[in-house]
Design a protein that fits this description.
CATH topology: TIM Barrel
Distance between the termini: 27 Å
Bound molecules: the ligand O=c1ccn([C@@H]2O[C@H](COP(=O)(O)O)[C@@H](O)[C@H]2O)c(=O)[nH]1
Largest sheet: 8 strands, parallel
Helix content: 40-55%
Number of strands: 10
CATH superfamily: Aldolase class I
Order of helices and strands: HEHEHHEHEHEHEEHEHEHEHH
CATH architecture: Alpha-Beta Barrel
Shape: globular
Strand order of the largest sheet: 2-1-10-9-8-5-4-3
Length: about 270
């Protein structure tokens, strides 16, 4: 089954468009993980198991593991998700982008080493830099379009031939790069107007929406501007607001409550 098919099934079976972000920061872990040598894996595993019911996808962010030399924990975490929660797709947030000969190794890293169902990619180097990911028809390629950060517009809003650059990205991905039907786009919740423009360009293409929760994006505006015509189409991603909903040893329960609240809030506006 392809990433997009898996995602569509999961949207329906979970009645959720919440993507649980996995950004482990040991300084924020609850006391019970102090001195635990495998804390990164154990913390994330507990969050995954507690929130799976409310998740349409999980999104581990690679830097949070790699910075600590914990790629093996990331590998085991993704294996745990596949084994324990089959049917929930894993999006590796790595924002890869390089010349083709290097990009093919990034594709192998994401899909063969880590066994992610999809990976985030940066379109700045052009199509050949993304091609090794696009070639994997069963896996998803989630391409940065309009990111959530305050400086997103520095380049992404630049006028290029009468339209902002991010709209060219949306158009190019939807019309030219999506031959295998395995593309999705990243649009920040913090930019609702741009989200509306992107949705109008790309039809029902899935959109990964970071920026609710800790970054302050408005859930109602996300749903109003980003929902696809089929009533789905969104992966509303939240990391810190779910992971660190409590700093105590009840953090997994608190994460489940936060994920459930986000799911319910999204669904209220659908
Ligand atoms: O435009 C983007 C693209 C990716 N991200 C990533 O999403 C999460 C957001 O974390 P929160 O704690 O929910 O703010 C993080 O992993 C980013 O690297 C993004 O924020 N914006």
């Amino acid at each position: 089954m392809t990433f997009i098919m898996q995602l569509r099934e999961r949207w329906a079976s979970s009645d959720s468009m919440v993507c649980v972000g996995l950004d482990p920061e040991p300084a924020k872990f609850p006391p019970k993980f102090a001195g635990e040598p495998d804390a990164l894996f154990a913390f994330c595993r507990d969050i995954v198991d507690a929130t799976a019911e409310y998740a349409c996808a999980f999104k581990p962010q690679i830097a949070h593991f790699a910075a600590r030399g914990a790629e093996d924990a990331l590998e085991r975490l993704i294996a745990h998700i596949h084994a324990t929660h089959p049917g929930i797709p894993v999006i590796l947030d790595a924002k890869r982008g390089d010349i083709g000969s290097t990009a093919q190794h990034y594709a192998a890293e994401a899909f063969d080493r880590f066994r992610a169902d999809a990976v985030t990619a940066n379109p700045y180097l052009g199509r050949d830099s993304v091609q090794p990911f696009l070639n994997r028809a069963d896996r998803g390629v989630v391409i940065l379009c309009h990111t959530s950060n305050p400086g997103a517009g520095d380049f992404q809003d630049l006028d290029v031939g009468g339209r902002p650059l991010y709209q060219h990205v949306a158009e190019r991905v939807a019309r030219d790069w999506n031959g295998h039907g395995n593309c999705a786009l990243v649009v920040g919740a913090t930019w609702p107007e741009q989200l509306r423009e992107v949705r109008a360009i790309v039809g029902d293409m899935p959109l990964l929406i970071p920026g609710v929760g800790a970054q302050g994006g408005d859930v109602a505006a996300v749903v109003a501007n980003g929902l696809a015509a089929d009533g789905a189409g969104l992966l509303v991603s939240s990391s810190r607001a779910i992971l660190y909903a409590s700093s105590g040893d009840d953090s997994a329960d608190a994460a489940a409550s936060a994920a459930k609240s986000l799911r319910d809030e999204i669904n209220r506006h659908r």
